[in-house]
Design goal:
23 helices, six-stranded mixed β-sheet, about 15% strand, about 50% helix, alpha+beta
Length: about 550
């Protein structure tokens, strides 16, 4: 009998939550690791129908019914396999493939693929502790990796020569290139990974399906990954998930960081539920896979602008997966550091505080809107409200969506539409803004709205209401812009001077510490740079 390719049915099981599908017909209550309800296949008053999201199957202890997401759809709706697959594919947003049976040749090809990647991993592991791998071993040990960690995550070294293409010369070249380890060049086969620190990439079952190689000579990009193959799809693969899967259930959450080393260091330093996307931006597929394990997610990004943008993208991606029992948060590592550096220099307790201080999604979205839109003006509020409305509409649970909307309506009334405003965003103190300066700024914003958009981050930080009607400014567009620039530079200078004073008070003798000397020099250089810019306005 013909059947759908296993890879398609596996993708259905991966993308769709068994609990979500079953709960459309059966009210479920979580008890321990499983969900329980009254069996839909026989009459009962005491719930004996168990659903395991982790294992991907349901079981009734009353009548013995047992199966997965596909068999439940077939039995509960009394439909055939094809109809069930069609319905589930529509739910998952997947295009239905043609019915085909996996051939024996395909099965053998997959086995060969796994055999090759497994053997390649062993070769790389041995080379890491050889003379040729000394540089890679020294690098990873400086990053705080012990021998036990290296062994657990099966790190290795790809040498400069074509070790894989020569070691597997007895394997047909098409099978070798299918793994992405070898390519064909003008002069024949050559290794794709050369002079790289190697990180094996495991599928959810713990099989090595690909590799990520880190540059050791400073060349860019820092990481290169196996190209997509029959068994490896980067957009659907989560680094460290095979190690974290059980802990995600136990800890009742997952933590997402930005890189492989960060994920490993987090896992071995008290945060075993940590994973990372693989050399690509976070995707909807990544979120779907994690939400199948647990809908509680803490995103941990750098605190810089790039990290804020990545967090906003993650926020918009996760909205369709939210449920009323979801707990999604955003944690930020500031100071140009990453989790690896925090753990190495400040320990687990410092990282724990960062995770504990994570901002709930509803607050993060609200703060981002207030930061990115000038909500002190009618036009800014209109744009902000449109963005909020569009974002909230992504939530599929309509009752929950309505609750979120009501919450934001209350915040908008209290913070946007009252003369006395308080904001949740972090504001820059603006000393020396006398009434005259405030009036000039209001006049500039109302005369030249394009400047309010251009300098939105600075203007919104002042916490000034721009609703009041004032006379238009006599300043030209250029002079008005220079006024804002000059004021902004003064505030930056004030902030840097305060930072310098605080830094000097926090250290006893900066001359004895090279790192402190460098930081002080950086602050002083920045102060001088801004001072020079201000002088230009006065000339």
């Amino acid at each position: 009998m013909a059947k759908y390719d296993n890879s398609f049915t596996d993708e259905l099981r991966q993308r769709l939550s068994l609990v979500d599908v079953i709960s459309r017909r059966v009210p479920l209550t979580k008890k321990g690791q499983n969900y329980w309800g009254c069996c839909p296949f026989h009459n009962e008053k005491t719930p004996s129908f168990s659903v395991s999201e982790e294992k991907g199957f349901y079981h009734c202890f009353g009548c013995g019914e047992h199966g997965d997401i596909i068999s439940f759809t077939m039995k509960s709706e009394n439909v055939d396999f094809k109809t069930a697959i069609t319905e589930l594919a529509e739910m998952a947003g997947l295009k239905l493939p043609e019915i085909k049976q996996k051939s024996q040749q395909q099965i053998e090809q997959e086995k060969t693929y796994i055999d090759i990647t497994e053997q390649a991993a062993k070769i790389y592991q041995d080379l890491l502790y050889s003379e040729s791998g000394r540089e890679a071993l020294e690098y990873i040990k400086k990053r705080g990796f012990s021998d036990e960690m290296i062994k657990k995550y099966r790190l290795g070294y790809a040498p400069k020569n074509n070790i894989i293409s020569s070691k597997f010369s007895n394997i047909k070249i098409d099978k070798l290139t299918a793994t992405g380890l070898v390519r064909i060049g003008e002069y024949g086969p050559y290794d794709f990974f050369r002079h790289k620190l190697m990180f094996p990439i495991f599928n959810a079952h713990g099989q090595i399906v690909a590799f990520s190689g880190r540059s050791l000579d400073g060349s860019e990009p820092k990481y290169i990954n196996t190209s997509d193959t029959e068994l490896f799809h980067k957009r659907q693969t989560i680094f460290g998930f095979n190690f974290a899967r059980d802990f995600i259930h136990r800890q009742n959450r997952s933590i997402i960081v930005e890189g492989q080393i960060d994920a490993i260091q987090m896992q071995v330093h008290g945060f075993p539920e940590t994973v990372a996307p693989l050399g690509t931006a976070l995707t909807e597929d990544h979120i779907a896979i994690l939400c199948k394990s647990n809908r509680n997610i803490t995103f941990c990004f750098d605190g810089d602008n790039a990290g804020q943008k990545a967090a906003m993208r993650a926020c918009l991606l996760v909205l369709p997966f939210l449920r009323d029992n979801s707990d999604v948060k955003f944690a930020f590592v500031s100071g140009g550091k990453d989790p690896d550096e925090i753990l190495k220099n400040h320990g687990t307790s410092a990282m724990q505080k960062i995770i504990d201080d994570a901002v709930p999604l509803i607050d993060f979205l609200w703060q981002s809107v207030n930061k990115n839109y000038l909500t002190q003006t009618p036009s800014g509020r209109t744009q902000a409200e449109k963005f909020l409305k569009e974002s909230i509409s992504k939530i599929k649970d309509k009752i929950f969506q309505n609750e979120i909307e009501q919450e934001y309506n209350q915040r908008k009334f209290n913070q946007w539409h009252k003369w006395s405003r308080k904001t949740n965003t972090i504001n820059i103190e603006v000393p020396n803004i006398v009434d005259m300066s405030t009036k000039i700024l209001k006049s500039i914003v109302q005369t030249y709205p394009e400047l309010s958009e251009k300098y939105i981050e600075f203007l919104s930080s002042l916490n000034i209401s721009f609703d009041e009607d004032v006379e238009k400014t006599d300043l030209s567009l250029t002079d008005a812009e220079n006024y804002i620039k000059k004021l902004s530079l003064k505030k930056m200078l004030e902030k840097l001077n305060n930072e310098r004073i605080k830094f000097l008070s926090d250290i006893k003798n900066e001359s004895e510490n090279e790192e402190n000397k460098n930081k002080l020099k950086m602050i002083n250089d920045k102060i001088q740079e801004i001072t020079n810019k201000l002088k230009l306005f006065n000339e």
